[in-house]
UniProtKB/TrEMBL annotation:
Domain Gamma-butyrobetaine hydroxylase-like N-terminal: 23-104
Organism in which the protein naturally occurs: Pseudomonas antarctica
Cofactor dependency: Fe(2+); L-ascorbate
Domain of life: Bacteria
Chain spans, region Disordered: 414-434
Single annotated GO MF: gamma-butyrobetaine dioxygenase activity
Protein's name in the database: Gamma-butyrobetaine dioxygenase
């Protein structure tokens, strides 16, 4: 018999219920939990998820085993409960032990799957009376718990504001990097939003900009967009937002045919200048694996001519006109002026943004912006939650660190994750603010 110590996940899994009983059937085990739930686990699934140090590399916590290398007639010789863990002996001599918290978190009986589906973070849809979540710059920079609250508000509501941000050009990079890597584009790492004579986008004029997402011309639109106000002395130029998910949701119930057309008929978006030519053909509304709205792609000023089957063209125009008309409806629109030292951070793949025209003669107006991908936001949230869950007190944090550094956690011990160094704002010296400025600064 081969027995190797279990390799812990980076996350911890709460013990929701003890294991009460295990029965071995021909191709699966039937696990009964102390709270009465019964979860079947196929032999193949269990063998595939063996956490032992032969099957998982202890340093990366990534799987080494490929299930195709295991006999497809795989069977469990015996199974039982050993010190609270599910213990399985495989024909051929491998031995596996499963943490009950982990097992429950991954059980795929109908009840467990429905529970997990219900726990999936849900978008909180909003309209014109949205209570804007506002956070304080210093708190976000210094307190991991406030940082987490901000990121959760972004994930679920898609629009937030931060106040008290320094107005020195480049300051935006510090707060953006509180989440993760900034995504560079042809507009730079940080882009400057000001009117300029040689504009390479309508954003860099004083025009009114209709509601849009940024970079719909890319395969992956940036997930988060920041807009930081340094100077705003000009008349006009108010920011306008709509929750694209709320509009899609309303369209789905008010005009299902139009909704379906926007989910299925691709539209091309283009952005070109003397040095680049970006194009992306994709539907305006994208759904996720559960059929929920996951993305809006929209910028009328970057749209190419429609190219759809002749029979579908009238429907596409009807649906497109309806969507744009809805973005103009007062019920969805939030209009606010951004003052120096304030910044917007919003989900660019959800919250459409616009700007009223401003009068460049009346005063200076200078915003800086940048992008971060949604993956970075979601990963940061999970790591912050992992750290919060893992560190109830200073004393247990020390014990925790010790458990991790003793390499593999032995079978029979509760699974523990590592302690990552907390991100300390300002610890790593940023490059000078000039380094972050991609587009030409005209102020
Ligand atoms: Zn194994």
């Amino acid at each position: 018999m081969q027995t190797a110590a279990a390799v812990a996940d980076f996350r911890t899994y709460p013990l929701i219920s003890d294991l009460a009983n295990v029965q071995v059937h021909s191709d699966q085990l039937s696990v009964q939990w102390a709270d009465g739930r019964v979860s079947p686990f196929h032999h193949q699934w269990l063998r595939d998820n063996c956490p032992c140090a032969q099957c998982v590399y202890s340093v990366t916590r990534e799987q080494v085993l490929e299930i195709v290398d295991v006999d497809d007639n795989l069977t469990a010789v015996s199974a039982g409960i050993d010190q609270g863990f599910l213990s399985v002996e495989w024909r051929g001599g491998h031995h596996s032990q499963y943490d009950p918290g982990w097992l429950r978190a991954h059980a795929y009986d109908d009840e467990s799957r429905a529970e997990r589906r219900a726990a999936k973070p849900k978008s909180r849809l909003w309209n014109s009376d949205f209570e804007l979540p506002v956070f304080d710059y210093a708190a976000v920079m210094q307190e991991p718990n406030i940082l987490l609250q901000w990121l959760l508000a972004l994930r679920d509501g898609g629009l937030t504001q931060i106040r008290g941000v320094p107005t020195e050009p480049g300051s935006l990079a510090l707060i953006a990097k509180r989440i993760s890597f900034i995504r560079e584009s042809n507009f730079g790492v940080l882009f400057n939003v000001q009117s300029k004579a040689d504009a390479d986008s309508n954003a860099y004029t004083a025009f009114n900009l209709p509601l849009h997402s940024d970079l719909p011309t890319r395969e992956l639109q940036p997930g988060l967009q920041f807009l930081h106000c340094l100077v705003n002395d000009a008349t006009g130029g108010e920011s306008i937002f709509v929750d694209g998910f709320a509009i899609a949701h309303a369209l789905r119930s008010e005009d299902p045919e139009a909704f379906q057309a926007l989910c299925e008929i691709p539209v091309e978006f283009r952005n070109k200048d003397r040095h680049s030519d970006y194009r992306r053909l994709a539907p305006i509304i994208a759904l996720d694996a559960w059929g929920d709205v996951a993305e809006i792609r929209m910028a009328n000023f970057l749209r190419g001519p429609f190219e759809a089957p002749v029979a579908q063209m009238p429907l596409l125009y009807r649906a497109y006109r309806r969507f744009i008309a809805m973005t103009r409806e007062e019920r969805f629109r939030l209009v606010k002026r951004l003052n120096p030292g304030e910044l917007w951070c919003f989900d660019n793949r959800r919250t459409l943004h616009a700007r009223n025209a401003f009068d460049p003669v009346s005063g200076a107006r200078h915003f800086q912006g940048c992008y971060i991908d949604r993956d970075e936001l979601l990963s940061r949230i999970l790591v912050l939650q992992r750290q919060t869950a893992a560190r109830p007190s200073q004393a247990s944090q020390l014990a925790y660190l010790t458990a991790f550094t003793s390499q593999n956690v032995g079978a029979g011990l509760p699974a523990r994750g590592p302690v990552n160094s907390p991100h300390i704002p300002g610890k790593k010296k940023p490059r000078s603010s000039r380094d972050w400025i991609g587009a030409q600064c005209l102020v």
